[in-house]
């Protein structure tokens, strides 16, 4: 078997071999190559000790990435390559990282410490594929399986619990039964994992091809990270619009949404407050103000998981406004374009579409209205119709020329003129706008007298 690898990687492997050491690419890059995918990066494992690796690459740019744990980065023709000595991990007292590592000259011992069989394979052009734990067969069987005892693997590093469900979502693989049972049993260990690392795995899971199945099968794992989901599970909505309980509706909306992180996060969190706002009138369920309350919960969750301010703001807005109605009005769409901007308004329509696809299919005819709203946005943008103050034919300097000198009043007047243009009560040309501005100032002065 021959795998195609970049020339820089071949050079690194050859260099180590020429110095008398074993060297292989290892882990995710081998898995991806066997799947026919292009790896994002390449990791190299070697029998050379760190100082031997640095001596071997004398003359190259070397970064002492983590020498204590055996890792050196060599930059070859602009490509950084992490090169790590074969090692055996010590005890994991914090359920995340080994307290110590012991270097070894055995590739098998190094691979035995890794998380899953599909990530525990090594390859070199000279020695071919090294697969001691059945990783290639598990790839063929589309199976996530721990190397060795699953309980031990998850106790060593609890992040592996999230990595398992993430791989299941991204690859579309099932979970080997003992591995699945162990991650459910040990899911409480996720409390030890840094929130930033949880965020990374959650993002990848949400963008996976099989996200719906994974959210259903491993809800309990997700609830360790976002316990606010728990009240949604099995919560009946008592609504003619809904076939599913709140959580199953949520899962449907996530899996039917486009693979865009802000949209999928919004769908995951958009109805969290429904159990908190539920009331029933005449046998029909109502969730008054659940949009705002769900947005508030989302704000807390995204902050807790260390999401950036920009992602948090966008997701919270999508949730807050996910039920707004445009009533087929171009004027309403222009106002929302001014409020959110084109990109975020288009995302809001994606959220509304996904939300609708999670409801009773007899209401999917409403998709036509969403299509019409999308078309109206296209027309407004193509025709360069005015929906922001910046697009007005006048600015603050123009208003000063007609006697409006207060900064706050200038802002109010520009917003007033924008409203007139959007409502088609005034054309967007300088003369007409200045005339309406003069009228506004006169009326204001008379009201003050």
Descriptive notes:
- Strand 3 and strand 4 form a beta hairpin.
- The longest helix is centred in the C-terminal third of the chain and has 19 residues, at 430-448.
- This protein has four domains: 7-136, Beta Polymerase, domain 2, CATH 3.30.460.10; 142-225, Hydrophobic Seed Protein (Orthogonal Bundle); 252-329 and 336-384, no CATH class; 389-448.
- Helix 12 packs across helix 18 (342-357), helix 13 (261-269) crosses helix 18 (342-357) and helix 15 (290-304) packs antiparallel against helix 16 (309-320).
- The model has no long low-confidence stretch (mean pLDDT 95).
- The chain has a seven-stranded mixed sheet with strand order 3-4-5-2-1-8-9.
- It has helices at residues 7-18, 28-34, 50-56, 107-112, 135-141, 150-156, 159-171, 177-185, 195-206, 211-217, 219-225, 246-255, 261-269, 274-277, 290-304, 309-320, 330-340, 342-357, 367-382, 396-401, 407-422, 430-448; strands at 23-26, 43-46, 61-66, 71-76, 79-85, 87-89, 101-103, 122-124, 128-130, 143-144, 174-175, 278-281, 284-287.
- It is elongated, with a radius of gyration of 29 Å.
- It has 449 residues and is of the alpha+beta class.
- Helix content is 51%, strand content 11%.
- This is HDIG domain protein.
- GO terms for molecular function: metal ion binding; nucleotide binding; nucleotidyltransferase activity; tRNA binding.
- Residues 23-145 form the Poly A polymerase head domain.
- Keywords: Magnesium, Metal-binding, Nucleotide-binding, Nucleotidyltransferase, RNA-binding, Transferase, tRNA processing.
- Residues 297-435 form the CCA-adding enzyme C-terminal domain.
